[in-house]
Amino acid sequence: MRYCRPGRFNRPPMQFGGLSWRSTHLDTLEKHFEAAMFDIYTRAKEEANYTASIFLQMLGDEGGVRTAKKLINAPNPSVGYTALWERDCLHLTVEAVVVGDARWHSLFDPSEIERAGRRLKQYGYQRRS
Questions:
Q1: DSSP 25-45
Q2: How many CB atoms lie within 10 A of CB 87?
Q3: Distance from C-alpha of 25 to C-alpha of 30, rounded to nearest angstrom
Q4: CA angle at residue 80 from 104 to 115, to 5 degrees?
Q5: Residue 90 three-state SS
Q6: What is the pTM of this model?
Q7: 20 Cβ neighbours under 8 A, 6+ residues apart
């Protein structure tokens, strides 16, 4: 007795719910990245006494990766970036999270990682241990 008719489930191997392992992995990675973005929002509020309302709105509207790409690719640092710099809290910026954790590098173009690193360097960022 055959349960699957040939051609009916025409998916390549290593697929889950119609998604390939790679896209499933990236979806999971993006969710973890988004959680990291919400974490820096919370930490900025607690550690720097800075409420990043616009950032929070962007996360809700665009998601973590799109928000980070917009901020990194902007010609000038955001108001939030500047506010965190003024408070000596650049470790709580999107740029620091992206540059400082290799887990996220596959979500960004090398030029975006480089741009984020350049911005941090311009503002005198010293990675905390």
A1: HHHHHHHHHHHHHHHHHHHHH
A2: 14
A3: 9
A4: 45
A5: helix
A6: 0.78
A7: 12, 14
Residue 19, classed as helix, strand or coil, is: strand
Cβ atoms of 84 and 90 closer than 8 Å: yes
Share of the chain above pLDDT 70, in %: 78
Q: What is the pLDDT of residues 66-79, one digit of tens each?
A: 999 999 999 999 99
Distance CA 94, CA 100 (A): 10
The single residue listed with the structure tokens 């979500």 is: 107
CA distance 66 to 125: 23
Q: Which two tokens stand for residue 13?
A: 């191997």
Q: Structural domain boundaries of the chain?
A: 51-129
With 0-12 / 13-18 / 19 or more C-beta atoms within 10 angstroms meaning exposed / middle / buried, residue 18 is exposed
